[in-house]
């Protein structure tokens, strides 16, 4: 079983991005839908997705009529987002087309005139669409989302602060993270990452957004005002054990453990930790609850 799981893993960046897009990203659809419903995202909404991954959340917002822009530091995930969005984008008017930004998020990116357009898949990435005259960052966005619960708070903070400094008053910024550990079966599996990384790497993985206080603290540090929150059930379901291992590895949460040990050991221990969640048909299901915070500029 261990050998099969190891061969089923995709250690290269492109393969892991595909595992995220094909296996893991869909697990958060209930979170995306709940937030979009609450904020009434639709025609006329201009939305910026931070850590947008391979674009599923952007596609859902776009299907509701929103004009969306995505930003992610992972060029492989953005390249996949471009592939997934390419066909539908051809039939959309220019002002409604999805825009993708790579690399570090700069104030210039948010103003709509990046100093150096970042290449994704060999093409220059357009900047966010302006709404009339945009003399300050993010002036054109009504909603900014940071859905990715695996993103370290230290990486999100500067981008959120840039958004807060330039957005118009009342703009919504959404942060998301894991719910209470006792209501997240996956938290017990993720404990493997910490256990394997700490003894040999000398430090725990970067802190992740989890409790309500963590989300509110990050928002206030960025100059945002908390204005409501919610919880959403996001079960993680996989057709088999190898898919579960690949999906969880694609989150990046096990990177420190792999660096401290090796891929085979992490695969083996992850598979063992998943056994209690296997069903008679071989599928794997873990019940989870995610939190989201709505903050205002």
Automatic annotation (TrEMBL):
Feature: compositional bias, Low complexity: 113-125
Protein origin, superkingdom: Bacteria
Gene3D superfamilies given in the database record: Vaccinia Virus protein VP39
Region (Disordered): 112-134
Cross-referenced InterPro entries: SAM-dependent_MTases_sf
Protein name listed in UniProt: SAM-dependent methyltransferase
């Amino acid at each position: 079983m261990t050998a099969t799981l190891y061969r089923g893993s995709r250690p290269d960046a492109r393969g892991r991005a595909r595992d995220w897009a094909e296996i893991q990203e869909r697990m958060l659809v209930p979170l995306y839908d709940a937030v979009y419903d609450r904020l009434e995202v639709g025609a006329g909404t201009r939305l910026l997705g931070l850590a947008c991954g391979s674009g599923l959340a952007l596609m859902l917002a776009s299907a509701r009529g929103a004009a969306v822009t995505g930003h992610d530091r992972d060029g492989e995930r953005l390249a996949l987002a471009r592939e997934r969005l390419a066909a539908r984008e051809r039939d959309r008017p220019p002002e409604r087309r999805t825009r993708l930004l790579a690399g570090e998020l700069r104030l210039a990116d948010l103003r709509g005139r990046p100093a150096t357009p970042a290449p994704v898949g060999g093409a220059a990435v357009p900047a966010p669409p302006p709404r009339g005259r945009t003399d300050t960052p993010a002036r054109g966005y009504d909603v900014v989302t940071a859905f990715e619960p695996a993103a370290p708070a230290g990486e999100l903070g500067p981008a959120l602060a840039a958004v807060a400094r330039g957005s118009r008053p009342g703009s919504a910024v959404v942060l998301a993270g894991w719910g209470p550990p006792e209501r997240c079966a996956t938290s017990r599996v993720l404990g493997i990452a910490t256990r394997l990384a700490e003894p040999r790497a000398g430090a725990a993985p970067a802190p992740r957004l989890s409790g309500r206080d963590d989300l509110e603290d990050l928002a206030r540090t960025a100059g945002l005002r908390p204005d409501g929150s919610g919880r959403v059930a996001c079960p993680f379901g996989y057709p088999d054990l190898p898919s579960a291992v690949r999906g969880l590895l694609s989150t990046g949460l096990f990177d420190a453990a792999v660096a401290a040990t090796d891929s085979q050991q992490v695969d083996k221990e992850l598979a063992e930790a998943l056994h209690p969640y296997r069903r008679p048909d071989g599928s794997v299901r873990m019940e989870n609850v995610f939190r989201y915070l709505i903050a205002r500029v």
